[in-house]
Design goal:
Shape: globular
Strand order of the largest sheet: 2-1-3-4-6-5
Structural class: alpha/beta
Radius of gyration: 24 Å
Helix content: 25-40%
Number of helices: 24
Bound molecules: thiamine diphosphate, magnesium ion
Length: 608
């Protein structure tokens, strides 16, 4: 951190705050005092300095990236900045780390890459953020404007490549305005439905001289949607809820993004309505609450899927009804009138018909509903029925002596050994589902995973981002656990080098089944057991690999080794990798086959 930059920001604010958002506001308060009306006291001299000044003024504290020719001017301007830059091993890692940082802090994550391969390496992470509506800003270097279109060295049409996977992207045209463009992109990432934005920065623009200090960051006029739903629509939905016999809340990731978990809890508890969540919605409602039915969908609990199948009034908040949640649309909540709360009108009746569309911010609309519903629905029998389903279809697994260590046991061991505020990140596959099923999530922003895109390799860089987020929030004692698969770990494990370099306290639990297990499971169920390209018995020894990186490496084969290994890894002040050799034949259950009916989930392999 640059002392000068840090000092100048503190001097601007009468009451220095630890909250990045408030810091941004503090900068705004002083904007009028500045001769240029800008937010920073240090005058800028180049486009690149203007970019960095805009980021600082917007409240960015941490950036993840990889250097390179076209982005060098921006890096040079970061040299004296208060923004902490974390060099990642690969740009995909930078994007996932920024994504996870944003999920944990609630502020947009920031990643940087050079032109060409740097930018294209970011694309998976940007697409991942786009699918999960995660606020993130990507800055990419670009060849000088006069070379654009010439197939210049490391030229890629980054704006073209990323247009379908960003909320919006920009090609910076001139040094005088580039700071304002970056500030706008940062703000736009978080207003309304969040998502990734990108600014492509030609090298001449960042090198050019300018004395235009960017003004306070602001989203484009009109981009901030009205947080309230129409009151007549709220009243109509309230009547439907009052009259329901079998009401059910379905809380999605939007509840967490809108910081509406308290409003969601208050609504469900006031009217004693059972609650299920989507996978991205994990943590929006405490899973140990008596109204909680855990999460629904392909590998969700049997009781959540039974409740969805039989509810007569589904109050769905902040969900886009992904097919992994709904299964076949015809059989999804077939008896329900659907109240759909979403900030994005494009989601209304896209996948599931909304009988009561309520367009607005999740927290605001839940408060509107809480005020509008006059009587608690008469649903004693329904609540009893939900409890009965909980008892009939518990999540279970067997631990016979003659079979290898079960992965679910490992997840439970970590849950028992850690506090409620522990952050869990994952790769994609069976291990991800077990991490979601066998951990009891009680707080928002503790479940950090790749949902819509399903990106193997998300877990390790996400753990790096999550750790730095917790540290930046002044919460260094929170644990960060990454549950990874052997296949997923192999895709981005190079980011372990970053965790070692930065001495990040993270524990990576590889649930090593020597298979890309989810594929193996589908091959057994739907391809007559032909294990084409899914047997990964050629895996390296991950504990030794961890040691080679400079991390703590532990190998675990049996039940009795689990607790001591968990304890040792958690006590270790730095990155630890535990290579858990788990049962390669274990399957994720229950399972609703793709496109199937949620109410007809398989509880055993032979039912698939
Ligand atoms: C980047 C990427 N490539 C391929 C896939 C397809 N895929 C989905 S799950 C899975 C298996 C993942 O294996 P592993 O990380 O070992 O996890 P496991 O299922 O064994 O727990 C694969 C290959 C994917 N989701 N992402
Ligand atoms: Mg595996």
């Amino acid at each position: 951190m640059s002392d000068t930059a840090a000092r100048s920001r503190e001097e601007e604010s009468e009451e220095p705050s630890e909250n990045p958002a408030e810091d941004g506001n503090a900068a705004e308060r002083t904007a009028d005092d500045h001769p240029d009306g800008g937010a920073e006291t240090t005058p800028v001299t180049t486009g690149a300095e203007s970019v960095v000044a805009a980021l600082e003024a917007a409240g960015a504290e941490t950036a993840f990236g990889v250097q390179g020719g076209a982005i060098m001017p921006v890096y040079d301007a970061l040299y004296g900045s208060s923004i902490r830059h974390v060099t990642m091993a690969h740009e995909q890692g930078a994007a996932h780390a920024a994504d996870a940082y944003g999920v944990v802090t609630g502020e947009p994550g920031l990643c940087l890459a050079t032109s060409g391969p740097g930018a294209t390496n970011l694309v998976t992470g940007i697409a991942d953020a786009d699918m999960d509506s995660d606020a993130m800003l990507a800055l990419t270097g670009q060849v000088p404007t006069e070379f654009v279109g010439n197939d210049a060295f490391q030229e890629t049409d980054t704006v073209g490549v990323t247009r379908p996977v960003t909320k919006h992207n920009y090609f910076a045209g001139e040094a005088d305005s580039v700071g304002d463009v970056v500030g706008e992109a940062f703000e736009l990432a978080k207003v309304g439905r969040p998502g990734p934005t990108l600014v492509d920065l030609p090298k001449d623009v960042t090198l050019d001289e300018t004395d235009e200090t960017p003004g306070p960051a602001s989203a484009p006029p009109g981009s901030e949607p009205d947080p309230s739903a129409r009151q007549d629509a709220v009243e109509a939905a309230a009547r439907a809820i009052e009259n329901a016999d079998r009401p059910l809340c379905l809380f999605g990731g939007g509840v967490i993004k809108a910081n509406a978990s308290d409003a969601a809890r208050s609504f469900a508890r006031t009217y004693e309505i059972p609650v299920t969540t989507t996978m991205p919605g994990i943590g929006s409602y405490p899973e140990d609450d008596e109204l909680a039915l855990s999460w629904a969908g392909m590998h969700g609990t049997g009781y959540a899927n039974m409740a969805i199948t039989h509810t007569d009034c589904l109050i769905a908040v902040g969900t886009r009804f992904d097919d992994r949640l709904t299964g076949g649309i015809d059989t999804f909540a077939p008896e329900a009138e659907v109240v759909h709360v979403d900030i994005d009108p494009a989601e209304i009746s896209k996948n599931v018909h909304a009988d009561y569309p309520l367009i607005g911010d999740a927290g605001t609309v839940l408060d509107q509903l809480t005020a509008a519903v006059r009587t608690t629905p008469d649903a004693d029998e329904w609540r009893e029925q939900c409890q009965e389903w909980k008892e009939t279809y518990p999540l279970t697994y067997a631990t016979p002596d003659d079979e290898p260590l079960k992965p679910q046991f490992v997840v439970e061991a970590f849950d028992e050994a850690t506090d409620d505020d522990t952050i869990v990140t994952t790769g994609v596959g069976q291990h991800q589902m077990w991490a979601a099923q066998f951990w009891t999530y009680t707080e928002p922003r503790t479940w950090v995973s790749s949902h819509g895109l399903g990106t193997m390799g998300y877990g390790v860089p996400a753990a790096v981002g999550a750790r730095l987020a917790a540290d930046a929030m002044g919460e260094p004692d929170r644990d960060v656990i990454c549950f990874d698969g052997d296949g997923s770990f192999l895709m981005t494990m190079q980011e372990l080098s970053v965790a070692v370099r930065e001495n990040l306290d993270v524990t990576i639990a590889v649930l090593n089944n020597e298979y890309i297990g989810m594929v193996r499971q589908w091959q057994d169920a739907f391809f007559e057991g032909r294990h084409m390209a899914s047997d990964y018995n050629w895996m390296p020894e991950f504990d030794k690999l961890a040691e080679a990186f400079g991390a703590l490496g532990i190998r675990v084969d049996g039940y009795e080794e689990v607790a001591p290994a968990v304890e040792e890894a958690l006590a270790y002040d730095g990155p630890a990798v535990i290579d858990f050799h788990v049962d390669p034949a274990e399957n994720v259950l229950p399972m609703v086959p793709s496109g199937g009916a949620n109410g007809r989930f398989a509880l055993a392999e032979d039912q698939l």
